[in-house]
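> forwarded from #structure-qc
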């Protein structure tokens, strides 16, 4: 009972912690989404006012970027005319975003209020249940104490009755002895004093002898009753055999514990019941009963079907099902279990029960699941309904990995959290403080939301994952506050990026899907640094000097990543009096090919130039 209460309390605290974490995460996401929408609105306004820099044309000439310079120079003429339109568009976008943020805040507050009411109702229900249980325990104790008092009173009454009867028997015997002595004295006096002349008729000795004989029989009867008072009491009063029987049973159990602990039992009935429940053949190497702390069935060397192996199964049976055809267990624990990942999925949607097999809870310790995904050893705790379906499944693993599954018809609702988690489709990339929720079917997973932290920022999005002969993953991806230097420090060495995009990937091996991934979207970098050349110096020197770095206030653009290569288009750079537009291609080997058209306003003139980008990602080169 104490363990159950402790588990209930732990579950309640865990639910409260999960609710608190979800509320904080929702607030954080709401703020991030507000910022993202403001940025998107600003970018949209800017895009509507600014013509996109076209991708390099592909003429028959040898230079694939020929003609781009003229286009970039033409676009520069429009840069100085966009400021007023951008400011107005930005103000309008900010106003709309503030209204949307206020509306979302009201909705979030209402949601939090409902969650708080739900939590309060759950706590009140738990408190009522606890009080009801305490009241039931108190009544049970009072009933037990009442029965013990009644038994004690009956015992005292029986003892009092026995003593009273013993006293009566003793008094009767004394009276009999006294009468006998009186009769003997009378006879002695009659024989020794002849002068009185008393005859037998005068003494009426026949009557005395009859009385003496009758009195002697009565005394003997009472003496016999006095010598056996307990027997008489037992005949007259019902006996409580509960305590003697309990003591005898306890002695028998203590004497038989050693034998029970090694008592072998037949495996045939267990194999038959389990096979009917699971729908596949079940084989058991050996089975025995154990009663060291409680009655337990231990099954060793269990195989389920062709691929599931279990070193040891320990079951807590109902006593009445030990030797019958119907097997009922309150709990089954599996140790040293191994299976395939496909069988894990089938078990989550299947049933564990039949007419001759019932189980309330299944626990697995450090279970291993082989398959295409790299999964750690997992602890599993599943609760089973009366019809054999799974009510809930909890999985846990290293790095605070926690997975909660709740079957809903043909679907599973799930929530995943982990302190750190390597993405299954890109094992070299991991997210900390990872969280994910959604639904799963036999064909795949739909994650309505996932997020985690990486490179000092937050990466979140949605996912749809399908499996089978071909694996696929697609969805949306968002990045907020991520350090851009981790991607290409020689190009952009400082600044944090915000990006939105869509991704798709497919292939036969889920661990290598990233090799076929495609990602396209837009990005924005604030207050960054181009780390390998100085655009202003290049303009002022006509491209003769390019070394140094370029600080900028904002850099925006669109990009496409596909199978290791990157295409960046419509890049716009703002750095005080200097503005620039650019396009850049990076192939899978890291080779660079692109151009920058830039101008800078000085007190006397406006300097303009088109610069070429080449070299490698690790060592870019810019020249006129």
């Amino acid at each position: 009972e104490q363990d159950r209460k402790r588990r209930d309390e732990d579950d309640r605290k865990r639910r409260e912690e999960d609710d608190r974490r979800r509320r904080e995460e929702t607030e954080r996401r709401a703020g991030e989404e507000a910022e993202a929408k403001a940025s998107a609105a600003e970018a949209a306004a800017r895009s509507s006012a600014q013509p996109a820099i076209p991708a390099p044309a592909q003429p028959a000439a040898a230079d694939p970027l020929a003609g781009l310079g003229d286009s970039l120079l033409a676009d520069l003429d429009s840069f100085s005319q966009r400021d007023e339109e951008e400011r107005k568009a930005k103000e309008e976008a900010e106003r709309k975003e503030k209204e949307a943020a206020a509306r979302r805040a009201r909705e979030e507050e209402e949601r939090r209020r409902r969650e708080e009411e739900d939590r309060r109702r759950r706590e009140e229900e738990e408190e009522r249940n606890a009080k009801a249980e305490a009241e039931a325990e108190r009544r049970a104790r009072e009933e037990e104490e009442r029965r013990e008092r009644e038994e004690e009173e009956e015992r005292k009454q029986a003892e009092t009755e026995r003593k009273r009867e013993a006293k009566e028997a003793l008094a009767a015997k004394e009276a009999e002895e006294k009468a006998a002595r009186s009769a003997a004295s009378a006879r002695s006096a009659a024989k020794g004093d002849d002068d009185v002349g008393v005859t037998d008729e005068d003494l009426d000795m026949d009557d005395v002898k009859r009385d003496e004989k009758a009195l002697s029989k009565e005394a003997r009867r009472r003496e016999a009753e006095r010598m056996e008072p307990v027997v008489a009491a037992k005949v007259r009063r019902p006996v409580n055999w509960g305590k003697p029987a309990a003591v005898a049973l306890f002695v028998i159990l203590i004497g038989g514990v050693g034998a029970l602990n090694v008592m072998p039992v037949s495996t045939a009935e267990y194999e038959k019941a389990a096979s009917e429940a699971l729908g596949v053949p079940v084989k058991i190497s050996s089975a025995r009963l154990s009663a060291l702390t409680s009655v337990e069935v231990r099954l060793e060397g269990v195989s389920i079907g062709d691929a599931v192996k279990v070193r040891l199964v320990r079951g807590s049976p109902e006593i009445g099902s030990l030797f019958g055809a119907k097997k009922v267990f309150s709990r089954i624990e599996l140790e040293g279990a191994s299976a395939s990942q496909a069988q894990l999925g089938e078990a989550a949607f299947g049933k564990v029960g039949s007419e001759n097999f019932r189980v309330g809870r299944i626990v697995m310790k450090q279970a291993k699941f082989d398959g295409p995904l790299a999964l750690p050893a997992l602890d599993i705790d599943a609760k089973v309904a009366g019809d054999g379906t799974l009510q809930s499944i909890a999985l846990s693993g290293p790095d605070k990995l926690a997975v909660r599954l709740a079957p809903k018809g043909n679907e599973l609702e799930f929530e995943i959290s982990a302190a750190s988690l390597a993405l299954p489709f890109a094992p070299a990339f991991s997210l900390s403080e990872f969280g994910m929720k959604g639904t799963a079917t036999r064909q795949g997973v739909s994650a309505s939301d996932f997020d985690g932290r990486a490179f000092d920022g937050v990466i979140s999005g949605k996912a749809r994952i399908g499996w089978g002969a071909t694996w696929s993953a697609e969805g949306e991806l968002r990045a907020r506050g991520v350090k851009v230097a981790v991607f290409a420090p020689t190009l952009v060495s400082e600044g944090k990026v915000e990006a939105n995009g869509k991704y798709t990937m497919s292939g036969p091996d889920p661990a290598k899907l990233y090799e076929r991934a495609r990602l396209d979207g837009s990005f924005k970098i604030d207050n960054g640094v181009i780390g390998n050349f100085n655009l202003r110096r290049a303009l002022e020197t006509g491209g003769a000097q390019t070394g140094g770095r370029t600080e900028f206030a904002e850099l925006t653009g669109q990009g496409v990543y596909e199978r290791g290569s990157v295409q960046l288009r419509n890049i716009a750079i703002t750095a005080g009096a200097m503005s620039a537009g650019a396009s850049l291609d990076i192939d899978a080997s890291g080779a660079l090919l692109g151009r920058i058209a830039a101008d800078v306003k000085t007190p006397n003139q406006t300097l303009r130039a088109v610069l070429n980008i080449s070299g490698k990602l690790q060592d870019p080169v810019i020249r006129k």
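QC bot note: The chain has a mean pLDDT of 78. The two ends are 82 Å apart (CA to CA).
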